[in-house]
Amino acid sequence: MTANPLPFIDDPDLTARVAVDGQSLQVVMNGTADLNTHKVLQTFLAGVHASATLHVANTVIVDLRGLEFMNSSCLKRLVNWIFVVRAEVPERKYRIVFVANPKAPWQRRSLHSLSCMAPELVSVQQ
Questions:
Q1: Number of C-beta neighbours around residue 43 at 10 A
Q2: Helix crossing, 105-117 with 72-87: angle to 10°?
Q3: Taking the domains of the chain in order of start, what are their residue ranges?
Q4: Are 34 and 74 in contact (CB under 8 A)?
Q5: Tens of pLDDT, residues 70-117
Q6: What are 78-82's contacts with CB under 8 Å, separation 24+?
Q7: In this structure, are residues 18 and 44 in contact, taking their beta carbons and an 8 Å threshold?
Q8: What span, in angstroms and rounded, lies between the C-alpha atoms of 6 and 107?
Q9: Are 82 and 116 in contact (CB under 8 A)?
Q10: pLDDT by residue (tens digit) across 14-54?
Q11: Which of 16, 30, 98, 103 has the highest local Cβ count within 10 Å?
């Protein structure tokens, strides 16, 4: 069996890394997610989903404390990811926990909206 590499983003504006921690994936994002990075973010989130299902993760923790800004195009990528997880069969679903920076009002507003879309799957920690 060949090991699948974990997805990552190494862009001048945005970095993202994934680590496996038992039955959860730890995602850390830093920088700015905007029109310049929305396509790479889409590919990254598809890779996160593939990794979560491959590792049979029950939780994906997404640390956004180092993310300075995310525009609506990138927020839409998060929405799409949530819809993909929500559409999965029960044994392939996992919880998404966003860890927010309490000093970033945009995160509080945007992530709260995401958690309302699928409260059974999405939560936010400050």
A1: 12
A2: 30
A3: 9-125
A4: yes
A5: 999 999 999 999 999 999 999 999 999 999 999 999 999 999 999 999
A6: 78/45, 78/114, 79/114, 79/117, 80/42, 80/45, 81/45, 81/48, 81/49, 82/114, 82/117, 82/118, 82/121, 82/122
A7: no
A8: 25
A9: no
A10: 999 999 999 999 999 999 999 999 999 999 999 999 999 99
A11: 16
Top-level CATH class of 9-125?
alpha beta
- What one-character DSSP code corresponds to residue 58? S
Can you tell me the distance from the alpha carbon of 93 to that of 86, in angstroms, rounded to the nearest whole number?
A: 7
Q: Give residue-wise pLDDT tens across range 26-35.
A: 999 999 999 9
The C-alpha atoms of residue 35 and residue 67 are separated, in whole angstroms, by 15
Three-state DSSP string of 72-92:
HHHHHHHHHHHHHHHHCCHHH
Task: Label residue 19 exposed, middle or buried (CB < 10 Å: 0-12, 13-18, 19+).
Answer: exposed
The answer, as to whether pTM is greater than 0.85, is yes
Whole-number Cα distances in Å, 35 to 9, 76, 90: 15, 11, 33
Which pLDDT score is estimated for 4?
Answer: 67
